[in-house]
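Hi there. Long-time user, first ticket. I'm pasting a complex I've been working with (about 602 residues overall). I'd like to know whether the download I got is complete or cut off, because the file seemed smaller than I expected. Thanks.
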Amino acid sequence: MTLSPAEWEAIRLSLLIGLAAVAWILPLGIGVAWLLARYEFRGKALLDGLIHLPLVLPPVVVGYLLLVALGRQGVIGQWLYSTLGVSLPFTWQGAAVASGVMAFPLLVRALRLSLEAVDPKLEAAASTLGANRWRVFTTITLPLAIPGLLTGTVLAFARALSEFGATITFASNIPGETRTLPLALYTLIQSPGQEAAAARLCVIAIAIALASLIASEWLARRTRQRLQERDG
Amino acid sequence: MANVTNRQSPAASRLTLQVEQQLGAFQLLAALDLPAIGVSGIFGPSGSGKTSLLRLIAGLERPIRGTITLGEQTLLNTQQGIFIPPHRRRIGVVFQEARLFPHYLVRGNLAYGMRSPAPQRFAEIVELLGIERLLERMPGTLSGGEARRVAIGRALLSEPQLLLMDEPLTGLDDARKNELLRYITRLTQQVDIPIVYVSHDAKEITSIADHLVVMKAGQVRASNKLDALLQRFDLTHELGGFDAASLLEGTVIAHDATYDLTHLALDDGHQLVLPGISAALGRRLRVRILARDIALSLVPISGTSYRNQLSATIVDNTILPETPYTVEIRLAIGTFTLRARLTRKSWDEMGLKQGMQVTALIRSVSFSAC
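Hi, the file is complete. Here it is re-exported in full:
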């Protein structure tokens, strides 16, 4: 089957927004997961709760909160617009922010579990060998947490791809800008006589999801091999 | 049975510490002043605070109060708010478990702490520990003894100014223990890094330490040169019990090639004959003699197989409550002190008492070179 320009557009936007979402939440997620896995501090439970909110809140609420915070009249949005000239709502970057927020808890959960599984005794051993905190983290902790990092990243990517509620609320449904696969599918279902086109998009969505799962499995296996071949 | 080991040169810089640490109900309260040269053993039953002490020295733990200095450097001073983190202390640690990094090859593990590429030093250490053939293996494929040796090599290659070893023989079978102990002994002779060696095994620690710290319930019970502590009756039970021993030092003065024996001069008037040892003439050697391997005679005797007859004076004696059937004796031989143990019956029948001149009899075959 050949894809129509509109379908290509939706696929391109979905991948772009999914990747952008993962790209911005990955460093933040690693930092937060490390904090939660290795340190005790005041307000830890609160931070943990805040991070997990998108999992339990209706996505529309998250989208609305984003509008309140990042909209042009919003607390942060106003500052962003006046100092950097950046406006997030109704843009694909805004869609990436929304789907990233929704995917964030999945990433942090997977990462935190795998970071907690790394034996702190190995980190202590590395420090006695002269490695500072940063080197311990990049050479011992993170490499040993890579399986969880991959799982978390793929989960987050898949979540970002399928994000609907927060995206449509915050970034709207603009063809060529924020109309990702789920939004395109929703639009088709809304208009009579488009059942065949909707079915096609459905198949495409399934194909992309499967492909990313297979790719992650392949990546995980390759990383394990590379880790074993590595000689430092 | 007795052991013969080489001996280190006298002390230069020192490791001093004074720490107070609370871990749950356990309190560690220790003040120590150790020579930062040779092997200092920290000895005590499990739960006596040995490992905590080691972690404090390494900087892996911070005490409530205290100071730690190594040579000129202050590693810790809680009053002045000084705390040098572990990665800047240059103190190598060999942990109970090897703690090798599972995602690096043995080669990568060894190189992890190296400050600069030093192929020569790398090759030397690898050779010293006999791990040439393990370099391209993953840590997961090593046996317990192999993993410990790699861990020792990894710590040595980080060029530490002090090496801490926390029960490095734990969990190995006897054959592997002896093998690893030989490697460690070799290392203490060939590598010029002071070592603090923690163990709860009296035999292990008295065979390797120059200086010994005896810990009990979070406190330092005794800290002195090993040979001095071995002379103390009140530490007999802790330091070997049945295997209580003395350390004597001497100079190799002759080899008897015909019978393969080595002559060791303790001082001008006293010699020991040992099984042949491949040590150069003039070399200082440390000899370990078990108290129960010594017999006493009122007069020098002939027609006996005892090759070593040393005239001695009884300095003092005691009967330990644990062993009411024996008398523990300290003998002065020239400038040396030697422990002996007789049955109480022999003591009484021979009419022995403090200040008496006797002859100490030691069989040459009771020495074993290691």
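A couple of notes from our side: Chain B has a mean pLDDT of 85. The first helix of chain B runs from residue 50 to 58.
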